[in-house]
Amino acid sequence: MALDLILKYFPDITETQQKQFAALETLYKEWNEKINVISRKDTESLYEKHILHSLGIAKVMAFADGTKVLDIGTGGGFPGIPLAILFPNTRFTLVDSIGKKITVVKGVAESLGLQNVTAHHMRAEQLKEKFHFVVSRAVTQMPVFLTWLRGKFEKEQFNPKHNGVLYLKGGDLAEELAGLKCEIFNLRNYFDGEFFDTKKVVYLSKGNFNN
Ligand SMILES: C[S@@+](CC[C@H](N)C(=O)[O-])C[C@H]1O[C@@H](n2cnc3c(N)ncnc32)[C@H](O)[C@@H]1O
């Protein structure tokens, strides 16, 4: 069963969280028939390629209660929705420049009863709020991404890592990250399976880029 995959790596989740993760399969199947947010071939591997992949960020950072996290270019809610299930006391703001995708995110969050998710149809550059962390997956190259983050970080720090960016990336990053001071975490060290062989979390402290 798909939920077993999540339980294998996050065995301490509550019954409510288990129900929420389990509900994602039907919710995304239903929404995907109306609005395409996950490629057809990936719906079969939703739990590995989308949900567990999103939770890779949690292996690098356990967000403290009260942390504010922005997910830029969330699409159908990745990585924001799985992280919001895992960290119910962290506030997640999910933005995407395509309105239909935000319709899906709002629908999924509402069905799950997630109180810690806010979703906006807007470009990240236009958002004026401040956050402790920014997460993302598959949106743009890191140097461009960083230009969207000016003025978006809170000064106060109360997490194990300094406020900053946690970006899910794949493949060879040498050229893209050249000159940037970042830490790279290989997800294969946390999760089994070929899919994770090339998958990484890139962490940049906000003090290490111009914001
Ligand atoms: C390839 S999809 C990835 C979606 C999701 N993060 C995932 O991994 O499944 C990239 C998304 O980024 C959004 N996007 C691109 N530029 C953006 C911007 N400046 N602000 C907000 N969203 C943006 C697009 O609309 C698209 O939904």
UniProtKB/TrEMBL annotation:
Subcellular location: Cytoplasm
EC number: 2.1.1.-
Top-rank EC class of the record's enzyme: transferase
Alphabetically ordered keywords of this record: Cytoplasm, Methyltransferase, rRNA processing, S-adenosyl-L-methionine, Transferase
CC annotations in GO: cytosol
GO terms for MF: rRNA (guanine-N7-)-methyltransferase activity
Major localization class: cytoplasm
Keyword rRNA processing belongs to the record: yes
Residues at which S-adenosyl-L-methionine binds: 73, 78, 124-125, 137
Keyword S-adenosyl-L-methionine part of the UniProt annotation: yes
Membership in a protein family: Belongs to the methyltransferase superfamily. RNA methyltransferase RsmG family.
NCBIfam families in UniProt: rsmG_gidB
Function: Specifically methylates the N7 position of a guanine in 16S rRNA.
Cross-referenced PANTHER family: S-ADENOSYL-L-METHIONINE-DEPENDENT METHYLTRANSFERASES SUPERFAMILY PROTEIN
UniProt protein name: Ribosomal RNA small subunit methyltransferase G
The species this protein was found in: Epilithonimonas bovis DSM 19482
